[in-house]
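Incident log entry.

Two folding requests arrived from the same account within the same minute. Monitoring flagged them as a possible duplicate submission, but the sequences differ. Recording both here for audit purposes.

Request one:
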Amino acid sequence: MSVLDAVKARGATRLANRLLAELRQMFGFALVREIVATDPTGGIEKKHVGGQEQERERVLSEADIRALPTKLADANLLKATLHAVWVMLATLARIGELTRARRADIDLATGTWVIPADHSRTRRNIRYI
């Protein structure tokens, strides 16, 4: 809790929640591999750490978007990651929606991509043209 409390004290509540999730995953793996005897994150809930997250209102400015090609080129990303960034920017698709995309969901002839409801966070089909 002291590690999570330190992050929360900085005002980084979203990061504290993410850190809790990562710690849970790490200790879950360690339990399965018998590296640890117990999971110290077992009784910790989001409400004890960062609490309910507020939806963010981050918007890229025109200057941000114009600077993006140079920043991405300088980042030395894998080509697939670079393409994923541009697809997500163009469509506002989430990373999970993009990584679960199948060839069958994309119609090159009509220029459409349908994200099936079971791949969508909103649980509705999403159609991009």
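Request two (distinct sequence, not a duplicate):
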Amino acid sequence: MLVVETSNELPDAQEVFRMVRNMGERGLLAAFPAVVVGRPKAWDFDHQLPVPERLAWAEAQRAAITRALAPYNPDAVVVFDVDLGHTDPQLIVPYGGEIRVDAVERRISVRY
């Protein structure tokens, strides 16, 4: 499983698309049956966005990731908006733990 998130640098959707596409170009995306995507950070103390713009920002990033995954791993289960990484609230996902994504039950379980 691949776990990704954007950063507090607030990359735009095109930059996010290019990063994910570049992983696909290198054959990395094909190796993962599931992709867990942290909820994108859509504001910063120095870069405040009104709520409608935050929602549009997040939707554009979800669309960019979906578009980038499509040619390289169209069968991957993709889970968006998980509270991990550079967001609040924030779940801790330690390296070496086990994450199970159950697409049928729409459930994620984590074992540390």
